[in-house]
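Run log // design_07
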């Protein structure tokens, strides 16, 4: 593997709307991010990924972009963004923006012009089809529910949107459209961006000609995955994208890729991959059901372990995965992966260590370093997430009671991760002096940054130790590039693995309340990290307490 500048970095995702509000309007903003750069630097992060802050009507929280060259006034100005890039650079930090090019907003100039003249230049920027009464061009189901086709305003045509109806899909088959995309990407990279996180990118390639597939629900529609499995040739688009933009700047890119086809991983993240890295979603998609969230299977500690190891084995020496516990589209990891009733600082630290020491690039989502948890909700009226609201409807139509439907969607709602960052125990968690745009999790008085900064035994302090260990000159080469070898894999609720390179490290976590014993093949040299006060050992046998995790140098 060719060594790259970003291999030894630690990344952090910021959801700007919920990070820190500098002007009291209840919405986080770019000046707010700038004011917290020193907090992030002290934590030890190097790369900051910002979820979209482009101009947008926010139908899907900024993933519907109406102007790729403009910052939304809610978040600040272009001057603020330029200052953020400059201030980050002073601290040896890199800024990533979200690259959302499967679709734009229906308020984008391109779409407006397509409505005016669907047969003209801009009509070819989208997937338009003649409207036929009582018949859709295809029976695909949108990711947010309902058909992917809607009427093109003022015309006798329909347009394709695989997400929200305010997010028309861009026609990547059109080279003129692709040129516009590349021009915009390079414009941002010229401003000094470190790179991009690439959103929903697999969707840019449709199976042509567009056609219907067998329905998989009573609504007569089929999952988008059915079409995507049949599509081919995305590499032509992605290699051109890489060569015309990212490669020229040595930019870091991380792809949101859920479903590459078997054997394609080297194309995506190999030495000359389309992207620098891609997220490991093996754990987040576990238990998914085509019927909906209500039918999803909860993930157990054993499932989590097996998902992590399967991803590590698949990636091997091909390239670097980006490892996550949570992000803006997922519930809080500590609420998802730690069994109910066992959620505490100790188990949160265990989850942190087991994930952070995997081979690949660690991504922290804002508040993860504090152990932020899911949001309790008592009514669907409290839910902002459009995806969760649709899943609630699906659950009711499947026959669940309102109470059961709410419980089913609450576990997976994207609002869980989008609640305001918990900075202190002051009003609104110190996030804003105004009225926050989304409910603050009521546990902010107990879980907040101010309290944890002052506590050497906090979850935040543990994350700082993990990051410091990853960057320590004596261990960096092993943690970044060393092989990962699972050990005692058959042991239930024990997740353990070696990292082998210049040195040999053992990561061992007891993912349950009850004690477990492990017998080492030889004595260890040094304890590098321990989330418990003590180690109970007799010769080479160590008794791991409930949710204890150890990182040992062998």
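design_07 sequence
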């Amino acid at each position: 593997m060719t060594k790259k500048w970003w291999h030894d970095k630690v990344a952090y995702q910021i959801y700007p709307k919920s990070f820190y509000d500098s002007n009291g309007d209840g919405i986080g903003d770019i000046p707010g991010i700038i004011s917290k750069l020193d907090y992030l630097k002290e934590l030890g992060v190097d790369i900051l990924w910002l979820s979209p802050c482009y101009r947008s009507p926010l139908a899907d929280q900024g993933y519907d972009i109406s102007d790729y060259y403009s910052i939304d006034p809610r978040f600040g100005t272009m001057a603020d963004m330029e200052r953020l890039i400059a201030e980050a650079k002073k601290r040896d930090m890199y800024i990533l923006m979200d690259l959302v090019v499967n679709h734009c907003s229906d308020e984008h100039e391109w779409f407006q012009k397509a409505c005016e003249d669907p047969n003209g230049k801009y009509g070819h920027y989208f997937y338009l089809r003649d409207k036929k009464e009582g018949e859709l061009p295809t029976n695909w189901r949108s990711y947010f529910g309902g058909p992917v086709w809607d009427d093109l305003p003022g015309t006798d045509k329909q347009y394709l949107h695989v997400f929200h109806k305010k997010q028309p899909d861009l026609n990547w088959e059109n080279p003129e459209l692709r040129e516009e995309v590349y021009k915009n990407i390079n414009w941002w990279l010229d401003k000094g961006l470190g790179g991009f996180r690439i959103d929903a990118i697999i969707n840019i390639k449709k199976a042509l000609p567009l056609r219907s597939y067998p329905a998989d629900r009573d609504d007569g529609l089929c999952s988008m995955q059915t079409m995507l499995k049949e599509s081919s040739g995305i590499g032509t688009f992605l290699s051109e994208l890489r060569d015309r933009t990212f490669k020229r700047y040595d930019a870091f890119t991380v792809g949101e890729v859920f479903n590459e086809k078997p054997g394609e991983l080297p194309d995506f993240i190999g030495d000359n991959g389309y992207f620098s890295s891609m997220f490991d979603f093996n754990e987040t998609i576990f238990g998914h059901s085509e019927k909906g969230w209500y039918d999803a299977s909860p993930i157990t500690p054993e499932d989590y372990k097996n998902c992590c190891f399967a991803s590590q084995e698949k990636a091997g020496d091909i390239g670097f995965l980006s490892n996550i516990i949570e992000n803006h589209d997922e519930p809080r990891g500590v609420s998802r992966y730690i069994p109910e009733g066992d959620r505490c600082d100790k188990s949160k630290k265990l989850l942190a260590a087991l994930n952070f020491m995997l081979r690949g690039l660690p991504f922290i989502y804002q508040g993860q370093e504090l152990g932020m948890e899911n949001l309790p909700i008592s009514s669907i009226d409290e839910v902002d997430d459009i995806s969760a609201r649709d899943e609630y409807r699906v659950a009711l139509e499947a026959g669940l009671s309102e109470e059961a439907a709410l419980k089913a969607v609450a576990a997976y709602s994207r609002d869980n991760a989008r609640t305001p960052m918990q900075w202190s125990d002051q009003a609104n968690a110190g996030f804003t002096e105004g009225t926050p745009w989304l409910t603050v999790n009521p546990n902010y008085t107990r879980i907040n940054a101010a309290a944890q900064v002052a506590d050497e035994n906090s979850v935040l302090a543990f994350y700082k130790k993990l990051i410091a260990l990853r960057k320590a000159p004596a261990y960096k080469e092993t943690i970044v590039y060393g092989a990962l070898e699972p050990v005692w894999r058959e042991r239930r609720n024990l997740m353990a693995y070696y990292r082998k390179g210049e040195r040999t490290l053992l990561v061992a976590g007891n993912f349950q309340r009850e004690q477990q014993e492990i017998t080492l093949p030889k004595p260890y040299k040094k304890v590098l990290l321990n989330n418990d006060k003590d180690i109970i050992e007799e010769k080479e046998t160590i008794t791991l307490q409930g949710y204890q995790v150890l990182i040992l140098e062998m």
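Residues 34 and 84 are 6 Å apart (CA to CA).
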